[in-house]
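User: Is it possible to get a 3D structure for a protein together with its bound compound? The compound here is heme C. I've pasted both below.
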Amino acid sequence: MNAYKQLLFALSLVIYGCAFNAASSPWEQLDADQLESVLTQKFADGNYSPKGADSCLMCHKKSAKVMDIFNGVHGNLNNAKSPMAGLQCEACHGPLGNHNRGGKEPMIQFGQNSKLSTQTQNTVCQGCHNDAKQMAWHNSTHNLEDVACADCHVVHAATDPVLEKLTVNDTCTNCHTREKADMNKRSSHPMKWDQMTCIDCHSPHGSMTESALNKPSINDTCYSCHAEKRGPVLWEHAPVTENCITCHNPHGSVNESMLTHRAPQLCQQCHADDGHASRVVQQPGVDAFGGGKSCLNCHSQIHGSNHPAGSTLQR
Ligand code: HEC
Ligand code: HEC
Ligand code: HEC
Ligand code: HEC
Ligand code: HEC
Ligand code: HEC
Ligand code: HEC
Ligand code: HEC
Ligand code: HEC
Ligand code: HEC
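Assistant: Yes, that's possible. Here is the predicted structure of the complex:
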């Protein structure tokens, strides 16, 4: 080595040392794009740890949360397809590289604190989860709106809360605050007691239907539990066969029976306000048009009628 090269070498050591001795890690300064290229390089280098999880746990076993992965499916050594049977921690977090040396070279991080794009995070999961059940994900609103698998799923846990009936609504309403407000209104499906869940009607990974419904249409979704409303009936009420949510808010409402509006306004959105139906109730309760039920006092078979004389939905 000549003197000039020696000098360069010494200088590079100084720079290298400075960078890694700095109070905060230089990696923390990287933006998302720079981080992606560092990780791409790590994958190209392919420096996986020969000791697998053991090398990670030297430093990470103090965290109960990290250790919890061994209580879940991903920590199962006996399932040949599980990460623990293969690259272990690095199957999800990428190769160790120089992460265990000074300076905390970054690993793939998931969830809200991650600077990585949702796409990059999700690709890791999709490496193993790409069966038919994941088909709808690609075009789902959640995918297009950059929701990450790890926004809903917790893998460092014995049980993933989003897979449990008693906790799935909490995960959904973390983001869906409007539906959370609706489900706590006076009239709603029994979701606030977790007797019903968002996924009774919606597919979290998307579906072929608008609003990611489980069934091909809104009405089919409702009929799956309210079969008696399917008909056919002799006298149909057109809006009922067309779309239940013309009159109902499926998430809940301040009005009885989850109605979007109260009668008579509910009815007068479509029915002319002349003739007998036009009677505006100045003093609620004074006659059959008044009171909480209004039009329904007489037209009680609002979902349709099978009575031979039921054409005006009165019986
Ligand atoms: C020599 C100790 C050490 C070893 C070995 C180690 N880590 Fe880390 N790891 C750290 C430290 C320190 C941090 C930073 C923690 C912080 O900022 O709170 C960290 C952070 C992380 C993070 C958070 C994301 C990030 O980039 O900051 C992940 C994920 C992670 N490590 C995974 C692993 C995995 C997987 C392995 C094994 C392949 C491993 N670690 C091995 C010390 C270590
Ligand atoms: C199936 C993929 C997967 C495997 C395998 C896995 N992790 Fe994780 N890890 C995640 C996800 C996703 C998160 C975000 C929190 C969560 O979902 O539980 C995470 C979070 C972490 C964190 C916290 C980082 C932060 O955001 O602050 C550390 C540290 C970590 N993992 C280390 C490990 C270690 C060590 C192993 C092996 C024993 C391991 N992980 C195995 C997916 C995985
Ligand atoms: C190395 C392969 C691998 C990777 C990577 C992986 N998984 Fe898995 N995952 C599995 C296996 C194996 C199972 C068990 C399923 C089975 O046996 O049918 C599983 C099961 C699951 C389940 C169902 C859990 C249950 O209790 O039934 C969820 C949810 C899941 N993974 C989410 C994720 C998420 C989110 C990621 C990315 C952070 C991820 N997985 C990454 C292999 C993987
Ligand atoms: C909006 C929240 C949400 C997101 C985002 C999400 N999931 Fe799920 N996932 C769920 C729920 C809820 C279930 C349970 C479905 C059920 O019981 O019908 C589930 C079930 C699963 C299962 C086990 C059952 C099955 O269908 O195989 C796997 C595996 C899984 N998800 C992987 C993923 C992966 C991979 C991603 C990202 C590409 C992802 N999930 C994104 C909420 C979500
Ligand atoms: C990390 C935040 C987040 C979580 C958690 C989440 N979502 Fe979403 N969801 C969104 C965003 C963002 C959109 C798109 C904007 C909107 O419609 O509010 C969306 C849209 C939807 C839509 C409308 C879909 C469409 O195609 O129009 C439904 C239905 C939905 N989410 C149901 C759920 C359910 C069920 C869960 C729980 C299993 C859940 N979401 C969890 C963020 C989230
Ligand atoms: C009884 C069935 C049912 C249940 C339970 C249900 N939804 Fe819905 N949801 C629907 C229907 C039907 C639509 C379509 C409304 C529309 O197209 O205007 C919808 C629409 C949505 C939308 C899209 C709203 C918009 O303005 O585009 C979101 C987000 C949503 N639901 C989230 C949730 C969440 C979160 C839960 C659980 C708290 C939940 N839903 C429970 C039936 C249901
Ligand atoms: C998974 C089953 C299920 C599905 C799907 C379902 N419902 Fe319900 N619905 C229920 C249950 C359970 C109740 C509560 C019955 C009770 O309290 O006696 C209920 C009650 C109602 C009520 C009466 C609420 C009240 O305050 O009296 C209306 C209106 C209603 N549902 C409309 C709908 C509409 C519209 C749809 C489709 C968007 C739908 N439901 C889909 C199970 C379901
Ligand atoms: C034209 C408006 C309208 C449409 C459309 C409509 N409903 Fe209703 N629904 C009502 C009214 C009004 C009530 C309250 C009846 C009462 O108080 O006597 C009600 C009550 C209900 C109830 C609770 C009482 C009962 O009859 O069991 C359920 C369940 C229900 N509707 C389901 C549905 C379903 C399912 C659909 C779609 C097939 C639907 N509704 C379409 C107006 C409508
Ligand atoms: C979304 C529009 C819409 C709403 C809301 C609506 N209807 Fe109707 N209704 C119709 C249509 C369309 C017909 C069929 C009219 C026809 O065949 O001439 C109809 C028919 C009727 C009939 C039978 C009329 C006949 O000539 O035999 C009655 C009675 C009726 N509706 C009462 C009500 C009541 C009461 C409400 C409120 C609870 C209501 N409707 C809400 C659209 C609506
Ligand atoms: C006191 C009982 C009563 C009340 C309250 C009532 N209706 Fe009627 N409605 C009738 C009778 C009876 C008929 C049949 C009239 C006929 O055959 O000429 C009728 C007929 C109708 C028709 C069929 C076409 C028409 O106009 O003749 C519609 C639509 C209608 N009502 C809507 C409504 C609406 C909307 C309300 C609430 C604003 C309402 N009704 C309140 C008794 C009532």
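The radius of gyration is 30 Å. The longest helix spans residues 3-21.
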